[in-house]
Structure formats: structure tokens, C-alpha cells
Amino acid sequence: MQNPSQDVMKDILTNAKTIAVVGLSANEERTSYQVSKVMQSQGYKIIPVNPTVDEVLGEKSYPSLADVDEEIDIINVFRRSEHLEEVAKDALETNCKVFWAQQGLTNENAYELLKENDFTVIMDACIKVVHAVTIGKS
Length: 138
Known about the structure:
Layout: H1 6-15, E1 18-22, H2 31-41, E2 45-49, E3 55-56, E4 59-60, E5 74-77, H3 84-91, E6 98-101, H4 108-116, E7 120-122, H5 127-134
Parallel strand pairs: 1-2, 1-5, 5-6, 6-7
Antiparallel strand pairs: 3-4
Helix pairs in contact: 3-4
């Protein structure tokens, strides 16, 4: 597994407008909430994907990626590594081609499946940190 270069990740973040966050918690103490809140403050539209909540960060939550009826630029995943393959299969049903698993998350089967289907795959990298490093605070 190899992540794209920092330049490619910067291009993704520069051109993206909408981030679907799988596993976004409504708990303000959780990393998924904190990272998504920062990305929202940077101008991205956050789409929560979590069947256990109705709304997070003022946005309607969807039970699954298949239920999202909006254009998605990045699928950002906050689910344990063993769930990444399942989320990857769901991602194949969307119009999105960027799959981003947060820091500490990797899954070889998910990676291979996504690469075979022309996805840009980023694993074990925090989207907020990459944004700060490549684009900086605005």
C-alpha cells in the first residue's frame, strides 16, 4: 500500500468541496467530530454517514454511503481497519473516486479493491493534518 504524493493529496483537497465522513460521531470528544469540524471551518461541506445519528455539525446524517444523494468528492473513513473493506464496497456504489482512511487505519483488501476500481486511495493519514501541511491555515 502506498499513498499518493503530497502534491496529489494537496490537489485533492484543493479541488474537493464535499467530504462524506463515514463513522462521524455526534460526540464532540471524538476525533471524527473534531477533525470534521475543522474541515468544515475550512469551507468543506461535511456529509455525516452514521446510521445512529440524525444530524452532526448541522448537517443531515445518512445511514450509509448508498443513501447519500449528493455529489461526494472525498470519502473520509473513521471506522476500525476491519470495517474498511465493507466501507470500500459501499464506496464503489458512489460517484466518488477518493477514499481516505484516517490515521491508524489500513486494510490491504480494501486498498486492492479500490485501486482495481480506479480510486485514489489514502490510508493511515489524517485529512486535517495533510490539509494543514499542504494548504495551511486560511
